[in-house]
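Sharing a chain and its predicted structure for anyone who wants a worked example. Both blocks are below, sequence first, C-alpha cells second.
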Amino acid sequence: MISANSEMLTPTEAAVVSSVEVRDVNRVIDESILPKDFYRINPDRTRRLFADACTFISFYFHAAKYLTADERLRAIAVASPNLREEPFASHACAEHPRVKGATPWKRSAG
C-alpha cells in the first residue's frame, strides 16, 4: 500500500509529472483505470493523487502503442500491490549485492 507520507498532487500537477494531459489524469479516475488506493476525492469533489500514481498514469498512456488496454490494466493490477509502506532499505532486494554498497562501476565484495 501507499505510505501515509506520500505527497498528494492535484490533477494538474500529476499530469505534469506523468507527461500527460489533465483530462487523461481525470480519465484514469473516472474510468477506474487507477486503483482507488492511489487517489482521493474530497467531499468538495476536489481530487488529489498520490505521487506514486504518476508512474502508473504515465505507463498506461505511453504504453498504449505497444500493449492493449487489458494488458496495461493487468500490469497495473499486478504491480500496484507491490508498493510498500516500508522504506526500501527494509526490503529483501536491498540486500542484493548490486544494491548493497555497490555502484554501477564498482561491485561490493562478497
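Comments welcome. The beta strands are 8-9, 39-41, 47-50.
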